[in-house]
Amino acid sequence: MTPAAAHKRITALREQVSHHDELYYRRAQPEISDYDYDLLKRDLADLEAKFPQFASATTPTERVGDDRLEGFVTYRHRQRMQSLDNTYSEAELRAFHQRLVKTFGREDLAYVVEPKIDGLAVSVTYEKGKLVRAVTRGNGEEGDDITANARTIHSLPAELKASKKFPVPGVIEIRGEIFLTLAEFQRINQEREEASEPLYANPRNLASGTVKQLDPKLVAQRKLEIVLYGVGFCEPAVTDSQSHFHELVKHWGLPTVERTWKATGADEIWAAVGQLDKLRHSFAYGTDGAVVKLDSFTQQREAGATSKAPRWAIAYKFEPERAETRINAISIQVGRTGVLTPVAELEPVALSGTTVARATLHNKDEIARKDIRVGDYVLVEKAGEIIPAVIEVNLKRRPPSCRVYRFPAHCPICGTAAIQLEDEVAMRCPNMNCPAQVRRRLQHFASKACLDIDGLGEAMIEELVTRGWVKELPDIYGLRREDLLTLGKSVEKSADNLLAAIETSKRSELWRFIHGLGIPHVGVAAAKDLAGHFRGIEPLMEAKTENFIANKTSVIEGIGETMARAIIGYFNEPRNRAMVTSLLEAGVQPQAPVKLAGGSTVFAGKTFVLTGTLPHMTREEAAAKIEAAAGKVSGSVSKKTSYVLAGAEAGSKLEKAQSLGVPVIDEAEFLRMLKG
Ligand code: IVH
Predict the structure, then answer these.
(1) Taking all residues of the chain, what is their mean pLDDT, rounded to a whole number?
(2) Facing residues of 604 across strands?
(3) Homologous superfamily in CATH for domain 3-62
(4) From residue 550, how far is each of 456, 540, 544, 559 by CA, in Å?
(5) Fewer beta carbons within 10 Å, N or C terminal of the chain?
(6) 3.40.50.2000, 1.10.260.40, 1.10.150.20, 3.60.21.10: which CATH number matches 435-505?
(7) Which numbered atom of ligand 1 lies nearest the CA of 315?
């Protein structure tokens, strides 16, 4: 390669890497797999090594990035949070050991091998054994204060268990990883699908998207988990090795990695990595590799660090399991809101322990971007070990007869011309009477997270729609016993049960009803916020933009511009209004949330942020009192915050309140205000 060509390529690679960093860190919506990202980085590093004249001091060889976001208070780590060098090659792993052998002049170096958890790095500070702060890595020097969100993690104790044998230091920054279990990831994505929201690519993106929610209440609805695996700052020092640290962490009552291995020398490291690879599929969380660390802290200090990563540790990453297979057909699924989702029907292929026969192709643009065609051989990977994704086409095996895929211009179910809404990538079937949409709407309305109508599952809905008894949601309430009895033998009891369940659903909670309407982007959490705010379906139907957004900020916490637009758009549609009216006329009376504790409303319209330790109550108790008096609790201080309720050892939130001029009150003042 000529220097000029190398320069051009280096510049292009750098742009790509920074583009993908932005998608990965700030938006938690990556476009390429970690593996492909690592390859890009590797290409860049290799070229820079060959052409040092074009190398940049700021080009990281591994992902350091910057995860900080607007809306969070930044906090400076007492000790810099570094990332790790990573490799996919056994030879490089052995070379890592050899470098240390050279440094120390001995072969028998002791290591600890740990699973590399696929989540996001966090630093948790305990002072005198009490949890005071949790901060993301940010740029390594300073990160976002996510304490309120971290407190929603049940396995993270507010206080460490101290004992004579395992004393707790005055101040310790403990490093770890926040993640979601694979099961929780699936549950949440299913909910997103129901709300017509884009799915998360993998558990790690979902975990980082969750940690970066400004409202801890939303965070609490997703079960974040944590493991702690390292010491940052510690005063006074309480341990001098990684293996002893793991012991300490367990005795303090902190969750830690599932298993660790002690290894001396490269062969033992490699054997441990192999064992981990066999075991990791049984873990509840995704592991994408092994982290190998020198055990002795003295040796760690001596080995030191480059400007990018420590020399005493390395991450060995497992190559994602991929398989090549043929696309037999591309089918189109019609969602509840008419979104047309292309799905690759694959020649079944074994991948990470299961058989993969279908993979989502996301949308029209994605197919065009990857130029995916029916008949192509494609590389399939299970992203986050769950959802199969088509990574790329093997052009060498493309049959000459393969034609560019044309996204259907019509809905495959009802034949209506498909449309594309402004600002949307998805194609939609605009026909609300499309049988596929009707079935999905009914399924959603009757589902557990909505009106929870027992007996109205997929099969029953299919029957009701096919027989023409139900064309829209209100028809459920007009179902006749004598019709249901014709559905088969011994159906009397199930017909009666179904009718009883339908009757009960008439008095469901308002949020269930709102969620059940299937307004795009409105999931359970938003439905609850809307129900709490509007307290009736009619005011919600009449709401205007200014009821949601004033001075470019949300009037109702948790309801942003996109959602506001979707809600207004939904109720602007005469058919939707007519449907809601019919439901009400059929006797549906959604129940507004009950006001708690004697119906006090002294804090109506007020938003509180709680920080520090209160003398006579926990923050959860204070939050319950605020909400019972119609107030709101938020996790972060902004100009919109009405009061910061601060206790002992209040940290950055107090500082932020002072800098913004937000009134700060103590517990006594709070109790006075509560009395009204
Ligand atoms: S040690 C200076 N141990 O992987 C050493 N990191 O690719 C810092 N990670 O930034 C990290 N599991 O977010 C360490 N057992 C483990 C880990 C782990 C996951 C993450 C961490 C780190 C990244 C490096």
Answers:
(1) 89
(2) none
(3) Helix hairpin bin (1.10.287.610)
(4) 41, 16, 11, 12
(5) C
(6) 1.10.150.20
(7) 7
Instruction: Give the span between the Cα atoms of 96 and 270, in whole angstroms.
Output: 12
Distance 116 CA to ligand 1 centre (A): 6
Q: Could you tell me which CATH class the domain 510-585 is placed in?
A: mainly alpha
pLDDT tens, position by position, 349-396: 988 767 889 998 988 998 999 999 999 999 998 765 567 889 999 999
Catalytic position from the list 8, 41, 50, 116: 116
Range among 210-224, 375-389, 431-445, 549-563 with highest mean pLDDT value? 431-445
Q: How confident is the model at residue 215 (pLDDT cuts 50, 70, 90)?
A: confident
> Half-sphere exposure of residue 323, counting CA atoms within 13 Å on the CB side?
19
Comparing 82-317 with 510-585, is the CATH topology the same? no
CATH architecture of 322-422: Beta Barrel (2.40)
User: Do the Cβ atoms of 561 and 546 come closer than 8 Å?
Assistant: no
Q: Is 80 exceeded by the pLDDT of residue 423?
A: no
Substitution candidate for ligand 1 out of 35, 80, 116, 123 with most atoms within 8 A of CB: 116
Tell me if the pTM is above 0.85.
Answer: no
- Respond yes or no on whether the N-terminal peptide bond of residue 435 is cis (omega within 30° of 0): no
